[in-house]
UniProtKB/TrEMBL annotation:
Residue ranges of Solcar repeats: 22-101, 111-197
Protein name as catalogued: Solute carrier family 25 member 53
Stored Gene3D superfamilies: Mitochondrial carrier domain (1.50.40.10)
Localization per Swiss-Prot or TrEMBL: Mitochondrion inner membrane
Gene name of this polypeptide: slc25a53
Alphabetical keyword list: Membrane, Mitochondrion, Mitochondrion inner membrane, Repeat, Transmembrane, Transmembrane helix, Transport
SUPFAM superfamilies in the record: Mitochondrial carrier
Lineage: Eukaryota, Metazoa, Chordata, Craniata, Vertebrata
PANTHER family: SD08549P, SOLUTE CARRIER FAMILY 25 MEMBER 53
GO cellular component labels: mitochondrial inner membrane
Membrane-topology annotation of the record: Multi-pass membrane protein
InterPro entries named in the record: MCP_dom_sf, MCP_transmembrane, Mito_NAD+_Carrier
GO terms for MF: NAD transmembrane transporter activity
Length: 293
């Protein structure tokens, strides 16, 4: 009958929809399960943040946190916990959706090997749009200089809401977008080939996914670390002149005396964070995806 839906076509469309839904679910689940390690390594992350802001050696940064006491050690942990779960849901799910769309629409125009990276680029941009406000709040809360003027999450939210979007919640959006798009593109573009190479060394699929996620995220984090330092310095304060990214970068470079070594202070600790978080997330996500196939 003309216009009647094709049962096979309907089943196929439903299957495609379920696959896309599963990728969002698997991304959120893997990130949620890695949330506990995020709590465990949060003091490490906060130590790195203090090094980024104050340009201090690790011993001095740890001393600052010790003097502030255990009650303030986890100030600012709520945004990354919430962001971690939502981030995985959006990043993995959207990348999978974009990848399928690109595979259908590009045909032979683009090489298949480039599609995961291109889909990751698009997912990273959406990620920046959604999560820049979370990162902004987190960085304000982690800066000990804001403790007196902005003692609670509510006070931070009210203060940021009172400002323009570019100075408030979306402060440093351009550096965040550059970091997230490049990072997601590199992560999704590299983790597959790295996993294949590692599997060839005789590791189990779970171990291969963990190692590939760790190595890939470690390389990406270290390569884009200067952008993370710039974002942290731009977002840590509320109010002030609100200079653009270029002016803030020049000021940051001067404050580091033109030294790449000083700019990368705290960068070595990114290795630990990458091993704990993205290694676990990648392993869990890949395992769930293989089970659903």
């Amino acid at each position: 009958m003309a216009g009647s839906p094709d049962p096979d076509g309907g089943d196929e469309a439903l299957g495609e929809t379920m696959i896309r839904f599963q990728s969002y679910l698997h991304g959120g689940t893997s990130s949620l399960l890695s949330a506990f390690p995020t709590v465990v390594v949060f003091p490490v992350y906060k130590t790195v943040f203090r090094q980024q802001i104050h340009n201090t050696p690790v011993r001095q940064a740890v001393g600052q946190l010790c003097r502030e006491g255990p009650l303030k050690l986890y100030r600012g942990v709520a945004p990354p916990l919430l962001m971690r779960t939502l981030n995985g849901t959006l990043l993995f799910g959207l990348q999978d959706t974009l990848l399928r769309w690109l595979a259908l629409s590009s045909h032979s125009v683009l090489p298949a090997a480039a599609l995961p990276a291109l889909a990751g680029f698009g997912a990273g941009f959406v990620e920046a749009l959604v999560f820049t406000p979370f990162e902004r709040v987190q960085n304000v809360l982690q800066n000990g200089q804001n403790d007196r003027r902005l003692p609670s999450l509510r006070s931070v939210l009210v203060s940021l809401k009172a400002q323009r979007m570019s100075h408030g919640y979306y402060r440093a959006f351009l550096p965040v977008a550059a970091r997230n798009t490049l990072g997601s593109s590199l992560y999704f573009g590299l983790k597959g080939p790295v996993c294949v190479a590692v599997t060839g060394q005789g590791l189990s699929p779970m171990a291969s996914s963990f190692v590939s996620g760790t190595l890939t995220s470690m390389a990406v984090s270290l390569a884009l670390y200067p952008l993370s330092v710039l974002v942290a310095n731009m977002q840590a304060q509320v109010g002030g002149e609100g200079n653009g990214a270029a002016a803030c970068w020049r000021a940051l470079w001067r404050s580091r005396h033109g030294s790449v070594a000083l700019l990368y202070r705290g960068g070595s600790l990114i290795v630990l964070r990458s091993c704990v978080t993205w290694g676990i997330t990648t392993a869990i996500y890949d395992r769930q995806e293989k089970r659903s196939c």
